[in-house]
Design the sequence.
DNA sequence: TAGATTGTTAATCGATTAACAATC
DNA sequence: TAGATTGTTAATCGATTAACAATC
């Protein structure tokens, strides 16, 4: 199971929903490949690996495909997360309406100063930090968004891990890692979103492509 | 020039700075490889490709290496960007202190309602949208951060492209693309940060790893 | 000199693509 | 049946790793 494959599955999923609303009932590996920008063989192989079978001449049934992907991607289960740290970024995320569209529900926010709620119209409850463990356990939350200040990030990470959080979206500049001797314990998924680094990369790529243009002019054909 | 290579270069760069502050003067491909988690051969190959030469027995001089990478990554030039759209995320970014650490300077923000400035203590000026073109041209900005509402994203993208912006950090859920027939015109760098998608991926990966655990238990060794 | 590390070439690995028999 | 599309195997491609002569 490749990381690229998961990315592709989400893309198939979105396209399939669009095709369904257009009234289509079947889709060929070729169409799907074109739509998500991969070779048709990749599409067939992906499905084959997931034991999703098409029909030798009729392609794949969209309805069935969506149902299968729902299960594989876990879209049939509730997708709930908490936000830890309700500073600027944290509260921006709490009020972001785009999550609901994708079926994601932010169950609560946590902050050392839960009074941050007072300032703003919070659509989502904000609790003090010492309710973190209780809430997560009671509500059986599996995913946490970390938007605390840099110095607090690893401590929060460890607290969340200890209480059963398995998926992390980390906005602090500290790159969170698990060094898990392959196959040991429950898998932990971490996505680090480092905005400063992202921006830095853009400057780098820009500079490098420009430089290589220059060298191409000097030495090139 | 691979995308992965740029990523590695930034990692070398950070490590080298740390080594320098520790007082080291030389570094071996092996050490550097260990530090960033790649094979030593990769390090040597990367440098070789960039015409950075070491010494057959003495490794690489840290000071020179940093100078070379400075140039390659464009760290010797000013790294300035504008933010278009000063809503919740936009203004959170404007007040984010992490950029300065990396030598990135946000030159200005733009919004259809520049009065957003009044509410908050803005460390950075916010101008109305119709000053966008003038400012970017006068200040020769090359990088733009797009934090406008979804519906406005492509319009803003096109305006920015037209006025010479070449690097984009896009926070709207619309995936911006350029279909540039290889080698035509100036290169455009786009990074899309889609937070909802990122979170979705975490749920997917979690679900898939859990499922594969289950199947492993059923069929496994 | 002997030992160590580079720069580069060859071998390996994995993923992508092409091809084709199976079959609806 | 003939045509089309799958599922899967083989070929290709690219990137990573290993190996080794060059040399400080």
Sequence:
């Amino acid at each position: 199971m490749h990381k690229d494959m998961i990315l592709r599955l989400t893309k198939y999923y979105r396209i399939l929903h669009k095709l369904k609303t257009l009234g289509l009932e079947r889709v060929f590996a070729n169409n799907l490949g074109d739509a998500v920008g991969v070779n048709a063989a990749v599409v067939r192989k992906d499905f084959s690996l997931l034991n999703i079978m098409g029909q030798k001449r009729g392609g794949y049934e969209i309805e069935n495909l969506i149902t299968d992907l729902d299960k594989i991607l876990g879209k049939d289960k509730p997708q709930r997360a908490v936000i830890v740290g309700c500073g600027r970024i944290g509260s921006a995320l709490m009020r972001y309406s785009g999550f609901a569209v994708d079926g994601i529900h932010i169950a609560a926010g946590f902050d050392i100063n839960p009074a941050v709620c007072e300032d703003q119209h919070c659509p989502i409850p904000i609790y003090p930090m010492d309710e973190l463990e209780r809430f997560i356990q009671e509500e059986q939350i599996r995913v946490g968004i970390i938007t605390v200040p840099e110095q607090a990030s690893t401590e929060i990470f460890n607290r969340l891990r200890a209480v059963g959080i398995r998926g992390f979206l980390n906005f602090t500049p500290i790159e969170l890692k698990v060094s898990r001797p392959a196959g040991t314990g429950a898998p932990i998924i971490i996505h680090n979103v480092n905005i400063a680094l992202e921006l830095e990369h853009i400057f780098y790529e820009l500079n490098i492509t420009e430089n290589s243009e220059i060298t191409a002019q000097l030495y090139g054909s």
Remarks:
- The first strand of chain B starts at residue 26 and ends at 27.
- The longest helix of chain B spans residues 195-219.
